[in-house]
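#lab-general

N.A. 3:47 PM
ok so I finally got the sequence cleaned up, no stray characters, all 78 residues accounted for. can someone with queue access submit it? mine expired

B.Y. 3:52 PM
send it over

N.A. 3:53 PM
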Amino acid sequence: MQITLISSIVVFFMMWWVVFFMILPIDIARDPNPVKGCDAGAPLTPNIRIKMLIVTSITTVLFSVYLGLMLWFGRHGF
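B.Y. 4:20 PM
back already:
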């Protein structure tokens, strides 16, 4: 099976979102005294930029492994 650029981009972004939703709840500190009208479960500091960098690096490694396996088994068969 040949891997196209579009299919590689789609797989990368699907992996990115899955990893993002896995990393998102890590290191969440909630406000012990929430303001009335605000969600009590809202994080004080969500650290989205840091988490996006972590997710991108993890996804890049996972995608590299995926791409390597696809290219290896594409040449050698199962």
